Amino acid sequence: MEDDAIGSAMRRYVTRRLAQAVGVLWAAYTVSFFVLYYLPGDPVAAMFGGGLDSTTVSPAQIAELRHRYGFDKPVFVQYIDYLGKAVRGDFGNSVSTGRSVTATLAGALPQTFALAGLALLLSVVIGGALAVSASYTRRRWLRQVLLSLPSLGMSLPTFWVGLMLIELLSFRIGLFPAFGDGGLRGLVLPAVTLAVPPGALVAQVLAKSLLAALDEPYVQTAQSKGASRLRIHLRHTLRNASLPTLTVVGLIGGQLLANAVVVETVFSREGMGRVTANAVTTQDIPLVQGVVVFGALVFVLLNLIIDLTYPLLDPRIIATPGSRGAIAGVGA
Amino acid sequence: MPALSSLRRGPRRISPFVLAAALLAVPLSACGSDDSGSTGGAAATSSNAPGQSGGTLAIAVGTDVGCVDPQQVRSSDTLYSLRQTVDSLTDQNPTTGQIVPWLARSWEVSADATTFTFHLRNGVTFSDGTPVDARVVKDNFDGITTKLGGLASLGVNYLTGYAGTTVVDNLTAQVKFSRPNAAFLQATSTPSLGLIAEASLAKPPAQRCSGGIVGSGPFTLSSYRPNQSITLAKRQGYDWGSSLWTKRGEAYLDKLLFQIVPENGARTGALQSEQVNLIANVIRSDESGLKAAGKTLRTVTLSGTNALWVNHAAPLLKDVKVRQAIMFGIDRKAVTGLFPSGTTPATSILSPKTPGYADQSSFVAYDPAKAKSLLDADGWRVGGDGIRTKDGVPLEITIGNPGAISSVDTELELIQQQLKDVGIRIKIKEIPVADINNIQQSGSYDILIANAQRPDPDILRTQFSTKLNNTYRLSPSALDTLLEQQAATTDQVKRKELAAEAQRLLLENADVIPIVNYVVEFAFSPKVRGLEFNPSGHPELHGTWISR
Questions:
Q1: Is the whole-model pTM more than 0.90?
Q2: Which of the residues A328, B163, B347, B454 has the least number of beta carbons within 10 Å of its own beta carbon?
Q3: Residues of B with CB below 8 A from A51's CB?
Q4: pLDDT tens-digit map of A107-130
């Protein structure tokens, strides 16, 4: 009808979302900088932690190192220095390893991306299949069993799942390697481990909305037209019920990154999770800053993509600010 | 479920505090006590029969510090690999503590322990082909003191008072100090003073960390993947091994693969399922499983103790009676049960393996009755909750766990129970890694628990001299003089006497409270042969081979 109007609304929307994204990135950067700065200790002190090391290094040597890294400048000067460089894409060097932050992240990213990508795929496919089966089956007991699986999956600690999988499938049967990045085979166990909690979440949310959608009038219409139960599920209710799930998938992105810390440690993989955990314990300010900005970027992008996907699933939603709030009203 | 042991948060952190110091050419002590491992002494596996060349040794270690420059790294986990890439001027016999030739075929030390003249072996090259000569020795020591500074925290300490190196001729380097540094000779045997090539010295410290260095060792770095693995390859044509090594020429193994596996249980499982051949930092609860799987266990007793380091400025701990009550209130035998088999109760602040060790077991003993009577006599009365008070002040002391290591919490909980029996309440405080330095500098702690390791009595001076950092806030005393004198004495008998007297003073006054002798346990496949360990507990892999 009025393609132009929709197009310009869309452009305004995207511009606005991008501006918001920049704001979010700046805020994340600033807040994390000052939080790290005002924590007790500093990155140089952390270099001498873990025992009695600092008793061997004189305060003068420590002061010299602080000067070398610029930690002796006033906090605001340091903040401006860091921010100025960050805007130009230079996050400086890690204090504990001396590698450039961008190189460290670039080295870790592909592995985490592969891991999280596979885990996301597994969680959507397995969680989705579980939800559809639960709502499709007419056997009440089976439905109950299937519906209780997600709660179980969410309550299992990730490190425990990982250790059990290693114990059974690597140490006992030798099917998969217990550590390292031995290609796809090495990726299976960590990805399965990482996929358990988000898979459970997908199953739970999708099953709930599927069951609710089955009570909608359009299902009766479809039934009266003679559509099969399977067709109703796959063509009608799944499409309508997937909107809340899509919102959840956005949140899963963050969850995957957070759980990657545990999974990467258990499976001895290099990746964003390990980098983050190390950076935080050693108060490696430049590296943590890099991680925070990266994390915020992923979150912002993921949510942007999801918001832009809503209209494709449900054309009644026009991508305008606050559109997500309108979803609830759509069915009415 | 064997994997459950790995629920412990992480590997026990090996205190990367391998402060070496010197035994001037001759062992100070009867430190020939054995290397009491579960499978026998260190020499037991050294075989004169020729080994088989070739193959890859896969090793699992717990941590990666993110740096592959041996001069900058202190963590044992990383030095296990980096030790193989550099040679040192000297080597130290793990059994006798004696300093023996390696890259230096001989040396002279001036009587006042300020001038060290090294005569280098001829024909040694770095893996880039450049020679190991007096010039590069000078540039290494200059680089550590001027360019690395605090980044080479061990090396810079070993070189305290460094006044410069003179290149006497191509193969003679004379190292001078502005004050006596008897500890220096032993320090030259450590990887922290391992020699690296000019090309590496020219690089910025950060680049050396991430890209590694060029050394003259029996292995060279072939790849480093942070938090994942360190791979070393055999140096072709290597022919200048330490005089301690039985194998001449090149190493047996073609390749060393150090996998970083943070979980204890995962390392154990990896060895059991033969995904690796050797693991470090075995914990007590995994021993039986490994033995059952036919693996060889080897406990290496290090030259230091696990101890309570006391802040003498803390109000309650100024009182010697309180410190002594803690000393006598700890059942060390019971604590050894938490550490790998072969761990023994401490009998001094140095372990029996440390050159200069002197038995102080009359002061370092478990005697709860004595602890109670000391406190009674000091006016501490038992209150209703079993905790003593004096003038309304409860006898409550906080012990900090630097780095918040979970296995240390277990140890502290046991000590907490033991001291409760004599009426002392212990509070346990986790101290984040980044905060340890501040706490030590500001003195805002009662007691810290930690390991200290150094195959030389000079550790007594660096830890307890009030003329240095004086982290423990001791008052100046006769102890300072003893510590200064041992650092300036080249007469070995005299030096041992001075060290013994210093230990007596420290332990009689309970200035520090030793708990157990510090060990590290390795486990390996029985196919791994010829594995030896240096006095710092790093494996020497040049003579190691895999039986096929």
A1: no
A2: A328
A3: 13, 15-17, 402-403, 436, 450-452
A4: 888 888 889 999 999 999 999 899
